[in-house]
Amino acid sequence: MDKSQLLERVIELVVDITGEDEVGEELDIDLFEEEILDSMAAIELLLAIEDAFGVSIAPTELEREEMNTINKIVARIAERL
Amino acid sequence: MSFYTEPAFFILLIPIVGFAAYLGVSEKRIAPFGLLVSFVMLGLLFSGQAASALFLIAFLVMTLVLGQLCLSRFQNWGKDSPQALMLYRIALGLQLAPIVIYKVGVVFNPSFLGFIGISYISFKAIQVLIEIRDGLIDILSPIEHLYYLIFFPVFTSGPILRSRAFMSDIAQALPREQYLDRLYRGLGWFVLGALYTFVGSPLASWFMWFVPETLNGLPALAFCTKVLGYGLDLFFDFAGYSDMAMGLGLTLGIDVPRNFRAPFVALDIKDFWDRWHMSLSTWLRDFVFMRFSAFALSKKLFSSRNTTASIGFMINMVLMGAWHGITPDYLVYGLYHGVGLALTNWIQKNWKFYKTHRHDTWFKVCEWLVCMVFVFFGFALFGGFVVTPILGLS
After folding, report:
1. With an 8 Å Cβ cutoff, are B286 and A60 in contact?
2. Under CATH, domain A3-80 is a member of which superfamily?
């Protein structure tokens, strides 16, 4: 899977979980600050990432600042693939 | 000797911080000195309490043994093997047992054997065990583990340190600039904390006891001022202690997390818990709420994510209440905040009016007012001004 496919898939997952269609437009906005992600959605996202990519990330493995934007989420998955 | 209250404690801090600063500025490791000082300070804290001291020692031995056992067995067996899972469950049960037995025990016998700091040391011990299970900790020397558990600035009442941040802070000496930054910040926080504790808290407490007495014939207003004074006193007392603990920790080279961040400007209950006793609320969020939610979602226990989140909030906050003490006041306080969080979550997700107006100033002012009334009524519950009198317990 190349970077753009990964990005596309991550955006799909976040849109699915949050119902916010515009998350794909701004890849560097802080999703927690914008109230797009919260603790519950973050957990759903970690579970969805495990399902979709087979990458398991424990809830305390990353600080919020390490996965608070679409680009950072993609980077964290790419590191583990 | 008790910490952060007696003059003797503050006098002892002068040589301790002085020597730590000397080590820090000379770019030497502070950790060995910090460990030694922690032993001495805990010795003073527990002087004359032999039974409690023995209980603490037994707790420490058990925790260190469980930590090493899990680390080595998980590596041999693979952490997802059935044996490893079984060991993890037993270890977690044993690690939880002292605090659970103690909290239940004091319900029936107020002098039930415990030791000061049992709650906070349990949070830290449980955290390490869970992170070993998650594969986030794969090396941990017993000495580092011990230092993490008994680090004296936060031993009695937190803030709850995160194990991995602590381990990285003690791994090597900090560069001088970085240490100096921590030293200056530490001293600043310490002074602020002392002001909160020794000036703010007595003023609030005076307000709480004196003003209501002048309001004879106006019971509702007297109740409100008493609760206001009580809430402010709680804040100044606990935030003051926490800031001193954070400041002292920083001077010893440890980046102790902040526990309070202007809680009275919170706009909603979720925001409030991101600002009030933060090291506890983030601990509960990471190790209870998120774990429960992940479990419930993967097993599809509830029909919707809203239900899962609501039940998660309730469990989280009732547990928080029970941790303060298994009494009607604290349990109702926990449930109250659980319901508050679930309701806030529901409103923010489903109420269109909220979504369209949440950035308007007038809306924020109303939101803030509602939040503060909710928070201060919560303090009234916490302080035993509501449930206890209703049940006729006092």
Report:
1. yes
2. ACP-like (1.10.1200.10)
